[in-house]
Write a structure and sequence with these properties.
Blueprint: H1 2-15, E1 20-22, H2 30-35, H3 37-50, E2 56-62, E3 67-73, E4 78-82, H4 93-100
Parallel strand pairs: 1-2
Antiparallel strand pairs: 2-3, 3-4
Length: 101
């Protein structure tokens, strides 16, 4: 199901020539980062080079028990975390390390 939503978002942004890019949520999940951090860093590096002209790059991130939306805004060097359960403290340090590398 998540794959279909991801695919639809990509097609919609291309159809309307929107300056947005998307990263694969499976690759950006906590379990993938934990198992093979260097793979995720390489994936992000390659993806960001391809999406360099995009205003916003988004991906869903599975924290293990909850999904959040992460938006990268390269022009402003900002990362925004959209978490519907923001009242509960969460440790995003592994994800932050991958983004910063």
């Amino acid at each position: 199901m998540l794959f279909l939503i991801h695919r639809c978002m990509i097609l919609e942004t291309k159809a309307h020539a929107l300056p947005m890019g998307f990263l694969d949520p499976e690759t950006m999940s906590l379990s993938t980062i934990t198992c093979d951090k260097s793979y995720v860093v390489d994936y992000m590096t390659k993806a960001l080079k391809q999406l360099v002209k995009k205003d916003c790059i988004m991906f869903a991130h599975d924290t293990g028990d909850h999904w959040i939306l992460v938006a990268l805004i390269p022009r402003w060097c900002k990362v925004l975390y959209f978490d519907s359960m923001r009242s509960e403290p969460r440790d995003h340090s592994l994800l932050k390390n991958v983004i910063n590398e």
